[in-house]
Amino acid sequence: MTDALCHLVVDGNEVLEFKLVRSVEDIECNSTSFSSEMCHQVFGENENIFGYTDLRIKLFYSAGSLQTYLGIEYTDKIEPSKAEGLKADDVEGALKKVLAPGFVTNLDQFLTLVEKDKSFTPHGRLVHAFSVTPEGDNRRMFEVYYSEISTPGFLSFHERLQTFLLWYVDAASFIDVDDDQWNFFTVFEKYEASEGGHRYATAAYATAYRYYAYPRNLRPRISQVLTLPPFRKLGICAHLIKAIYTHFTVLPEVIDITVEDPSPDFQRIRDYVDVKNCETLPAFQPAQLHQGFSQDMANQARSKFKINKKQARRVYEILRLKHTNTSDKTSYLNYRLDVKNRLNAPFQKKKLEMKKLQRVLAPEEFAAAASASGAHETQARLAALYAALELDYRRVLHRLQLHE
Fold this sequence. Notes:
Blueprint: E1 9-11, H1 12-15, E2 16-21, E3 33-34, H2 40-43, E4 48-50, E5 52-53, E6 56-62, E7 68-73, E8 76-77, H3 91-96, H4 107-116, E9 125-132, E10 140-148, H5 154-161, H6 165-168, E11 182-192, E12 198-213, E13 217-227, H7 236-249, E14 258-259, H8 264-278, H9 286-289, H10 295-305, H11 309-322, H12 329-360, H13 363-373, H14 378-402
Parallel strand pairs: 2-6, 13-14
Antiparallel strand pairs: 1-4, 2-3, 5-8, 6-7, 9-10, 10-11, 11-12, 12-13
Helix pairs in contact: 7-8, 8-11, 8-14, 10-11, 11-14, 12-14
């Protein structure tokens, strides 16, 4: 591409504008706009769009039912006949592939849909309600609803909701809606309408898959979790996790609850919720913590809160750090050794495997295998792993302290 055409290349994230529209006034209000975090799942790996001058892409959703408006604006578009056959990227075509059917491209038509949103009520069954009071702001009310594939009207709503994954979750994929083992938890803000009464705005959601566990049990796995940008930093995700726990912990057939590939941010919120729960259990009291992780801890965490053993061990380590005097060299050393012994287990396994190889390989072959495995870097990697883990644990403890 010549330098003369470089001005026709734009970053897709910079030209995308999102809104959750509650009223006509929101259309022209800049404070209601938010941006995407990624767009490579729609516009390609480099996230660039070619061929337009002053390109703006507007994706507006009615706040409740998420009826969708797509607006594409530009002042000029490259003509192949004047640019050696180069064509502008098909922006509308790329978006049509991922947007739910029924989106509109006429703004007046969209505003009619926004007006109809006044009568929108959440699909499913109310399972949790909570309020938050942001600093310097008024109290805000939220509700969490549980839905299944069979919940009337939910699938068409979910089809619109899941499109947000593409802009905020890397390697996102849409779920198979023919599989009735999927469960859904959706968070809505319940707010007072200017004309009186209450209205709803979609804020967050999570999916959970009910995996079969032999012989007649279930092991639910939390899969997709997303809080929409206008509702972040309000503690909503923690309440969403609590709602999921509340739903599943009362089911006797549920063994424990797992999470599919949790992001670091989600893992910290999960840790926070689990630590708050487990510090009420007898096995997680300070006297027991200093004796090391026990089967009793694993059993109580699973029995009371359906927390799996791997996660129960993290909870133990966080709570033990909370009750360790890090100014006491011996106590702090004992804590670090306890955690590092767990972190070191995979390296020890690899070490045993290398010893077996040493017996069957020629010296030069073994040296090459040891080099490729990074065996000599084990201590450095272990130290780095521990440092990162303790930092994460301290963030969880800081949040606990703020909410005590």
